[in-house]
Amino acid sequence: MKNYSSKKLMEIEHKYGAHNYHPLEVVISEAEGIWVKDHEGKRYIDMLSAYSAVNQGHRHPAIIKALKDQADLLTLTSRAFFNDKWPVFAKKLAGLTGKEMVLPMNTGAEAVETAIKTMRKWGYRVKGVEKDKAEIIVFDENFHGRTTTIVSFSTDPLAKDDYGPYTPGFIVVPYNDIKAVKKAVNKNTVGILVEPIQGEAGVIVPDDGYLNELGQIAKENNILLAADEIQTGFCRTGKLFAYMYENTVPDIIIMGKALGGGVFPVSAVAADENILGVFEPGSHGSTFGGNPLGCAVAGAAIDVLLNENLSEKALELGSYFMEQLKNLNSDKIELVRGKGLLIGVVLKKSAGKARTYTTRLKEKGLLCKETHDWIIRFAPPLIIKKEEIDFAMGKIAEVLG
Ligand SMILES: *Cc1c(COP(=O)(O)O)cnc(C)c1O
Q: In sequence order, what are the residues at sequence separation of 6 or more whose Cβ sits closer than 8 angstroms to the Cβ of residue 379?
C-alpha cells in the first residue's frame, strides 16, 4: 500500500492527472471523525470537510454501516425498475424539507441543473411564458457548479472563460441588492436562484431580511425562489438549512454535499407537487439517481445530523470559534464572518496571499483551503468538540496571531 512516498504520489498525479486543481501538498490516506492522516502517518484536523460534504465527520460508523449493509444487498437498479430504498428515502427527505416531492440526482451541479429545468418547464407550462423566453435571476460571484449551462452565468473568469458559446436566459445582478432584483424582474422571469450564504465567493453573508425580500418579490411576481443549499444545508450554518434564519420558505430547495455523508455522491431537489409535478416520465433523469446504495447512505447521513443535534452544535461552536478568531486581534486579519461553522477569515491586503497561511497551517496540522487569494475558510466537521477548536486555535494563533 505504501509503495510510493507522498512526494512520488504528487509527482505521479501531476504527470497523469489533468491540472484542474491545485491541492495543498498533503497526501491523505486515512481519516476518522475530524482527523485525517497523511501517507507518512502525520495527523491533521480537517478544517474544510470537503467543502462541507463531510459535516457528519469522516467515516461516521452509522453511515459506513448503512453503506456496507446495503452493498451486501443491492446497489443499482436504474429507475427502469423500482427499488426498495428510493421510496423510503424520498419520503424521509420530503418530510425533512417539508416539501411534497423530491427528485434525486448525484452531484450538486446536477441538482442545480434539475432546478433550472424545473423553473423553466414550470415557467412555460404553469406561468405561461412564451416559448424559449424564460429568464432566471442569478447573482454576482455565484457558485452553482461546473456544467456548461451553470458556468454560462458564472462571473468568475477562471470558471467561465473559453467554455462558450454560453447558455442564454440568465440575468446576473449584484448579491445582497434587492433593488437590482426588482429592476431585473419582467414577465419572462421564472426563477431566482440564490445561495443563502455565498460559500465559494468567500463566505459572504447577506443582510438580515434579504431572503425574505427575495421571497416577497417572488410571490408578488409569480416567480419561483430556488435556494442552493448544497454547501449551506444540513446544519452547516447552525440551522438544518440556512434559509431557516428567515421566514421565507424557498419554493425549491437544492441539496447535495453532506446529503451523502461524505461517503457517496447524493443530491436532490425538493419542491411541492405543483412545481416538481412538471416532469413526466422520460423528461429528466439519471442512471444513478435514486440508487439504493446512495439512498441508504443518505438516509443514515440525515439520521446522524438529527440524532446528534448537529445544527445546535454548529451554532454553539461556530459562535465560539468565530469569537476566538476575532479575539486574536491579528494585524493580518481584516474581518471574520460567517454563520455556524461556515467561517471566512478575510486577510488584510498587507498580509499577503492566503495560500502562504494555509500552507503554514498545514505544517502545524490544520487543513484549510483559501478561497480567492485573501480569504481562508474554516469549516470543520460539525462533530468537532470545543477542546478541539481550542487546540486548533492554538495553531491558528501561531500562524495568524
Ligand atoms: C459544491 C457546490 C455546488 C456543486 O456541487 P458538485 O457536487 O461539486 O457538483 C453547487 N452549489 C454550491 C453552493 C456548492 O457549494
A: 47, 48, 49, 51, 52, 236, 341, 342, 343
CA-52 nearest atom, ligand 1: 15
pTM: 0.98
Q: Which amino acid is at 70?
A: Q
Q: Would residue 321 show up in a list of annotated catalytic residues for this protein?
A: no
Residue range 343-376, pLDDT digits in tens: 999 999 999 999 999 999 999 999 999 999 999 9
Query: What strand order describes the sheet that includes 342-347?
Result: 333-339, 342-347, 375-378, 369-371
Catalytic residue (one of 85, 127, 239, 257) = 257
Rounded to the nearest angstrom, the gap between the alpha carbon of residue 374 and the centroid of all alpha carbons in its chain is 21
The rounded Å distance from CA 266 to ligand 1 centre is 11
In angstroms, the CA 300 to CA 52 distance is 17
Is 241 marked active-site?
A: no
Q: CATH 3.90.1150.10: does it fit domain 6-56+309-400?
A: yes
Catalytic residue among 46, 89, 127, 143: 143
Ligand 1 pocket member 223 (CB < 6 A): no
Q: Given ligand 1 and candidates 106, 175, 230, which is best to mutate, with the most ligand atoms within 8 Å of its CB?
A: 230
> Given a cut of 90, is residue 1 above it in pLDDT?
no
Q: What is the pLDDT of residue 3?
A: 80
Q: What's the CATH number of domain 61-307, 3.40.640.10, 3.40.50.2300, 2.170.270.10, 3.65.10.10?
A: 3.40.640.10
Torsion angles phi and psi, residue 397, rounded to 5: -60, -40
Question: For the segment 309-348, what is each residue's pLDDT rounded down to a tens digit?
Answer: 999 999 999 999 999 999 999 999 999 999 999 999 999 9
Tell me the CA–centroid distance for residue 36 and ligand 1, in Å. Answer: 23
- The mean pLDDT of 123-151, rounded to a whole number, is 98
Judged by DSSP in three states, 140 sits in coil
Count Cα atoms within 13 angstroms, Cβ side, for 82. Answer: 5
